[in-house]
What does this fold into?
Amino acid sequence: MSVVVQSGPGWVLNALLLIDAGYQRCVRTGNDGSNLQLKCTFKRQYFQISKSYYNRSPSAAPNEGKPDILQVTDKQPKKRKRKRSELNQGEIDSQAFHQKVRSVILEGTKTLVASAQSCGYLNGDAHAEKEAPPPPECGLAALCEMAKDLPPVDEEEHVQRLISEGGCTTNIDLFSRVTEHDQDCAAAVKLMGQEYVIPPRTAFLLSDFTRMNPLVEYEKSFDLIVMDPPWENKSVKRSQRYSSLPSSQLKRLPVPQLASPNCLVVTWVTNRPSHLRFVCDELYPHWNVQVVAKWFWVKVTTLGQFVFPLDSQHKKPYETLVLGRYRPAASPSDSEMKEVLIEDNRLIISVPSALHSQKPSLSEVLNSYIRPGAECLELFARGLQPGWTSWGNEVLKFQHSSYFTLTPADDPADTSKEEAPDGPSAAPALSSHHANR
It folds into this structure.
């Protein structure tokens, strides 16, 4: 389990452990149907944020092949010199929002981090390795753009299997069909000339807005929909890390066609108040989604410190999640609408990835708020999760094999006996917590 601590203020997550849990059994599948048993773990260097004030290296320009890596530095970023009276309305609103939630985040983080440290977690990484390797350039969005020129698929079949009955992965159309990996183990497969590691029991569609129809025609109603939209902001525009999307375009997402009644909809929102207002006042009402809670993801170092000062005007060490329930006009009776009350202002504490936009999985945190065996969907996904369906124009980004350590397994059973990612202290922390639940 990746939940290290669960208490009143929220949760402390071991994000790396949760990723690795989906790859305890992995095979490398060849086009000839051959299988090689592998040990597979996500590279731990990406989760070794040991110091505050981490930022993208100013020397790493977008065309240098390092657009997504966050570098650790002891220096606080330089601020633009200007008079305090020059704050614009957006900055004034940001300060007001921060003051409103500051005490919740400060006190909740203190409590949760102290509990985690008493369990042996967030006390530093005694097994810290060298700096994380630079990530590969991701050309998936560009491929999706080119795929828009392909003729639409007229066939009724909108679903395909990743691995055929003969064990082959050839002739896979990633852009026009939902691809299912229906096996119980992860698979390292060649797709478009690159190797990707696909978790078990997952489905995905690589496309943009213009080719979402296969997902709508997938004939699944989802009980949980999580999305991390590419919000517009000046930083993204300057760095050109990814293409942003105007807020108004989000209304085009077919959420009502994808959601089951009472579906839990969770949206990652930047700390820009206009984005938060848009989600709560326009986007969710447009979909008949009722806001039920706001949570915060608090990013800490391996020593339990905020990655940025809590009151920093440059960047905050937290992001907001807006949780809502889909309430269709013709909803089932109250007896069929059983749901668990969702508490407001809960915190999710974790060490962030050094990879831009790699959010922690919310699967274990949200399990208690959805029905057993729920169908789960992630929109604007940049990676896959076991048992989930995912969509986005970079949906395989963090599945590239270069993010993983892949070694042949002499004994397939050994793949489930790997030491916990955070060293020997992680095991007692987890077992102690769950024994007292």
